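Re: that backbone. Tokens:
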């Protein structure tokens, strides 16, 4: 009886896990299959197979321009997220500011505010500063929601490093800055790069701020997708979605490798 009960429990667990995985993976697999359809509309199963959607994606200037803009914006945002987050993490974790327990909460505050509400506030601020519809205004908006990813990951990495490493370096003649840059910062490089990748992906996929703050001459890839859907579902979107999934998987794999490198060191 116990054997039967154990078998039934394992079977139920396996079936439940299979259903959950199928529910999560099936939409992605469906999009990948549809991206290789040569039909003029999106329908499953495709009648004709081919790579027309991918060739259209490469041959249409608006998609190429949107991809280039999104890549450039995401790179800038990832770099500035690291530049802002790393000193903030050190200030909170290695100075007297560590006594103020509310400061780390401020670092993740943008993630707790609904993006639509946050976008309305940024719209008013950017309007006063004359940055509406500009690249740097949009980059600043993306920075607000991408910075917390680098902040949280870098803070967790710094918490695992003993302050004694810097003290030992300073007892051997190194200055505070030399100990910080030569030991602690160097050990945190994989963590910072991992957080930067998450910031990059978040910025690249950000659609709410782009729709609120970007002007007609500043069309990111998510905004171009939304604009295309409003006019009718373009089959090219399936090729874009499939490419983004592969690109995201590569970036997440790179982030996992960086985290593993940081853990092993």
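Recovered sequence:
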């Amino acid at each position: 009886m116990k054997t039967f009960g154990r078998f039934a429990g394992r079977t139920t667990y396996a079936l439940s896990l299979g259903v959950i995985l199928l529910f999560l993976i099936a939409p992605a697999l469906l999009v990948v299959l549809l991206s290789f359809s040569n039909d003029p509309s999106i329908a499953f199963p495709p009648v004709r197979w081919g790579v027309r959607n991918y060739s259209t994606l490469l041959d249409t200037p608006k998609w190429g321009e949107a991809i280039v803009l999104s890549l450039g914006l995401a790179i800038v945002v990832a770099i500035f997220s690291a530049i802002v987050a790393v000193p903030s993490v050190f200030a909170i974790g290695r100075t007297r500011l560590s006594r103020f327990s509310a400061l780390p909460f401020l670092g993740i505050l943008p993630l707790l505010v609904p993006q639509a509400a946050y976008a309305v506030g940024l719209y008013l601020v950017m309007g006063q500063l004359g940055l509406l519809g500009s690249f740097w205004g949009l980059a600043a908006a993306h920075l607000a929601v991408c910075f917390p990813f680098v902040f949280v990951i870098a803070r967790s990495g710094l918490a695992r490093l003993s302050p004694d490493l810097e003290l030992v370096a300073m007892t051997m003649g190194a200055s505070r800055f030399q100990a910080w840059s030569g030991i602690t910062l160097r050990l945190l490089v994989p963590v910072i790069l991992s957080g930067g990748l998450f910031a990059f992906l978040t910025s690249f996929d950000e659609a709410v701020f782009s729709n609120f703050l970007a002007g007609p001459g500043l069309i990111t890839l998510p905004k171009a997708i939304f604009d295309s859907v409003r006019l009718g579902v373009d089959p090219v979107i399936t090729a874009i979605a499939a490419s983004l999934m592969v690109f995201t998987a590569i970036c997440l794999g790179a982030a996992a490798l960086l985290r593993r490198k940081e853990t092993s060191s």
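The mean pLDDT is 77. Residues 53-264 form a domain with the MetI-like fold fold (CATH 1.10.3720.10).
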